[in-house]
Specification:
By secondary structure, this protein is an all-alpha fold. The protein has helices at 3-26, 36-40, 69-75, 87-96, 102-116, 121-129, 136-146, 152-159, 167-193, 207-215, 220-232, 241-250, 256-267, 275-290, 297-309, 327-339, 344-363, 374-383, 392-414, 426-432, and strands at 54-57, 61-64, 67-68. It is built from 20 helices and three strands. The structure holds N-hydroxyamidocarboxymethyldethia coenzyme *A.
């Protein structure tokens, strides 16, 4: 057993005991009242999930195990002192709650390189059976499901396993899956956009550096970008669609591949991860229709108003929880200002940022008019040469695996049961508020 698993037993067993005790002794205690509006608006603010990897504050944004993004950039191990932290370190932090050492990060990097070798050949056959113009998220998710033939959890479950041990083969599956998805993502990218000219994994590179390498980008600049990208997209509490879907499906003891695939189906929605691609469509359509590459603030204002008039959303703006500019947006903007200050797309994103919030506020219904992570991530990737928009949500998915799969390991360490909220029909809700037609 590797030392991380050993550590998880030490940390996880007392926590599982605590969860059992809380449930037994305080199970009847009321912790929150739910109002009708919350149910009718997608359970906003209803506390109903136990998640320890990260916490989202409406004003401050995300903290991973208590650390903000600027703190992570300072405290997590890096390859170069002026570089970005390695996502391996964030994974360790989310998993154990402890800041990793360089040795921890090296251990995980090494594990993931080794485990990445285990992708069975039929996974590539399955991807190749799809048309090349199938959206990369379809190809990505199909590959994830095809990899579930390797599920160690399924084998161990069939062989008979004590409930207390569910987390062990889950952890193994999670490590396998995380090690393999950059290879799959890069394969899909090269298949669709580079005429099947594939690039092998480099055993001397880190996880995010390898993703850049296998996609065909070998500069230190793109590796740095990928490290930042995969850290900031990794987790966003438990209630977002990709995390919640992974948790929900996992609660039926579906294996990590099935569970993660469910999360990725959610990420592919335009109100969630697909927004990063849609932002780029929105920007390019605006430039095309106006007939300029660099529209003025007034032209952006008119185009944004036109979008709202057509009953569409402006992608990259708004959030179900956040009530301020997303720090994941701000860190990308700072990164761009530092390394590529003259990039025209970033200047355009900055200009849109000046104009769009006031338009959304004037429309009078949005709760948060500020940009989210997706308002800039595509422009940043594009400015570094990764211009193929349809791959963007796949890259988000690669990063999001770190958080939602860590949550899955913890669901099983805690021994959480199957999720089964109660539903009621419309008449029931009407009766609760004495509604008379
Ligand atoms: N443009 C136009 N209208 C918007 C809007 C936007 N960007 N964001 C919200 N609204 C509208 C809603 O559609 C809703 O209208 P109706 O009352 O007519 O239904 C109203 O404002 C109130 O919505 P809200 O309560 O402020 O927002 P929700 O919690 O319902 O939705 C969303 C949050 C992120 C889905 C929403 O802001 C949105 O659609 N944004 C654009 C898509 C996007 O950028 N998604 C990515 C979000 C971050 C993420 O998950 N990344 O993966």
């Amino acid at each position: 057993m590797d030392y991380i698993k050993q550590r998880l037993i030490e940390i996880g067993r007392p926590k599982a005991e605590l969860v059992r005790k809380l449930n037994k002794e305080y199970g009847d205690k009321k912790i929150q009242e739910v109002n009708l509006g919350q149910v009718m608006t997608g359970m906003k603010g209803v506390v109903s999930l136990l998640t320890c990897t990260s916490k989202l504050d409406p004003d401050e944004g995300i903290r991973f195990r208590g650390y903000s993004i600027p703190e992570l950039r300072e405290k997590l191990p890096k390859i170069n002192p002026d570089g970005e932290p390695l996502p391996e370190g964030l994974f360790f932090l989310m998993l154990t709650g402890e800041l990793p050492t360089k040795d921890d990060v090296n251990f995980i990097s090494h594990q993931w390189i080794q485990r990445a070798q285990g992708i069975p050949p039929h996974v590539y056959d399955v991807i190749n059976a799809l048309p090349k113009d199938a959206h990369p998220m379809i190809q990505f998710n199909t590959a994830i499901l095809a990899m579930s033939t390797e599920s160690q959890f399924r084998k161990a479950y069939l062989a008979g396993m004590d409930k207390k041990d569910y987390w062990g083969p889950t952890y193994e599956g999670v490590m396998d899956l995380i090690s393999r998805i950059p290879v799959i993502a890069a394969y899909i990218y090269r298949r669709v956009f580079y005429n099947e000219d594939y690039i092998d994994i480099n055993p001397n590179l880190d996880w995010a550096g390898n993703l850049a390498h296998m996609m065909g980008y070998d500069s230190e600049e793109v590796r740095r970008l990928m490290r930042l990208y995969t850290v900031i997209h990794a987790d966003h509490e438990g209630g977002n669609v990709s995390a919640h879907a992974t948790h929900l499906v996992g609660s039926a003891l579906s294996n990590p591949y099935y569970s993660f695939s469910a999360g990725m189906n959610g990420l592919a929605g335009p109100l969630h991860g697909m927004a990063n691609q849609n932002v780029m469509h929105w920007i390019s359509k605006m430039c095309r229709e106006i007939g300029v590459e660099n529209p003025s603030e007034q032209q952006i204002r008119e185009y944004a108003l036109e979008t709202l008039k057509k009953g569409q959303v402006i992608p990259g703006y708004g959030h179900a929880v956040l009530r301020k500019t997303d720090p994941r947006f701000s860190v990308q903007l700072d990164f761009a200002r530092k390394y590529i200050p003259d990039a025209p797309l970033i200047q355009l994103v900055d200009k849109i940022y000046k104009v769009v919030p006031e338009i959304l506020v004037s429309a009078g219904k949005i709760k948060n008019p500020w940009p989210n992570v997706d308002a800039i991530s595509g422009s940043l990737l594009s400015s570094y040469g990764i211009t193929e928009f349809p791959i963007y949500t796949v890259l988000f998915g690669v990063s999001r695996a770190l958080g939602v799969l860590t949550q899955l390991v913890w669901d099983r360490l805690y021994g959480l049961p199957i999720e089964r909220p109660k539903s009621q029909n419309l008449e029931w809700f009407m009766s609760q508020v004495n509604y008379q037609e």
